[in-house]
Amino acid sequence: MNRRYMFAAAVLSLMITAAAGCGNTPTAENSSTASPQAVPAAEATAEDASQQGQDDGGSEKDGANREGAENNGPESTAPENKEAGNEAAGNSEAENPELIFIGGKVRSVSQDSFVLSRTLYEESDGGQGSVVVMPEAGSPAEELVTIRCMDSTVFLRWTIKGGGEDIKEEEAAFSELQDGTGLEAQGYFDGDEFIAEKVIIEVYE
Fold first, then answer.
1. Every domain of the chain and the residues it spans
2. 94, pLDDT greater than 80
3. Would strands 144-161 and 193-204 be described as parallel, antiparallel, or unpaired?
4. What is the pLDDT of residue 100?
5. Which of 7, 25, 188, 193 can bridge 97 by disulfide, Cβ–Cβ 3.0-4.6 Å?
6. Taking residues 63-69, what's their average pLDDT?
7. Residue 153 to residue 155: CA distance in whole angstroms
């Protein structure tokens, strides 16, 4: 009888011990489970704080950059645009010079140029307009201009009849120029020389 009770007591003791061990195991598991959750939460908090700091800093930096761009933008670009505009205007004038006509008589001819004694205009004595004056060759009143011809210069011959009522226009050539030839040249001045784009030889009948 005593052995049976003792055996029963031993079995009961083992059961209690086993029950106690099983009861502690979930606690440990819960503890180990809770710890990994706590670490990422802390890391997430640190990352959020770092990200927020970067965002705040980036916003401040972007704001400063925008403010700087607003303050400096017009001042930095205006001079460049103005300079570019002036340069474009200068190139346009150089490429498209104003064309004018000058007339007179040929005094000498060179390989690709000739000297023109320009026709002068003076006020009439009655003040009713101007009169054409053609200075004599070699006189101090002569105004001589060197006319430079290019490969693209166009030569025309006008045969004028009836004081200009009838004009016959034909193609001409540089070789037709000689001392005393009357003509008009269209072009522009390049320094002291006149660059001719068109030369009209005038022949009066």
1. 100-204
2. no
3. parallel
4. 97
5. 188
6. 48
7. 7
